[in-house]
Design goal:
About 35% of the residues lie in helices and about 25% in strands. The chain is α+β, with helices and mostly antiparallel strands.
Length: about 170
């Protein structure tokens, strides 16, 4: 969902600069410790749960799910996070140095292009979610509000038809 509009050529080029890490079930990776530089983690396959201060933050369970993008934009001394594999999993880790500016290097442009796509998609999702929350039903007998946030019109149309076929005219 974050990489749809990035050319396969650029995406491959970026991913090849990362480190491929494989996890067995139960394997753990601690990241964002004090004095550690931030990194972007992209799930290729499997399922990984992100834990901070003994609290589950969220789960990466779809190929292309990402973690760590905010730490690249805003440096902070937040507590460490632990990534624990729930299945056999693979991730690509893009280290902080890929996001540093070096003269005559196009990599920074490419990784920031990718980062803007990730952040824009997450922002779009958050805005749509806030609109749904604001539009909650005030009375029990009102028709439920459904939000379809897929950016592709073709997929939105398929979802609308599926809902109409399942629920009929409400």
């Amino acid at each position: 969902k974050y990489f749809r509009k990035i050319s396969l050529f650029i995406l491959e080029k970026i991913l090849k600069k990362g480190e491929l890490v494989e996890f067995n079930i139960g394997d753990s990776l601690v990241t964002n410790k004090k004095n550690n530089l931030p990194e972007l983690i992209i799930l290729l396959k499997g399922s990984i749960v992100i834990i901070s201060e003994k609290t589950t933050i969220f789960r990466l369970d779809s190929p292309g799910d990402v973690f760590g993008e905010m730490s690249l934009v805003f440096s902070n001394n937040k507590p460490y996070t632990e990534l624990i594999s729930e299945k056999e999993s693979q991730v690509v880790i893009l280290r902080y140095n890929l996001f540093e500016f070096h003269k005559k290097e196009k990599t920074v442009y490419e990784v920031y292009l990718m980062l803007t796509h990730i952040l824009a998609e997450k922002l779009r999702y958050s805005i749509a979610k806030s609109f749904l929350i604001k539009n909650t039903r005030s009375q029990r007998n009102e028709i439920p509000v459904i939000g379809i946030i897929d950016p592709e019109k073709e997929f939105r149309d398929k979802i609308k038809v599926s809902i109409k076929n399942s629920w009929g005219n409400l």
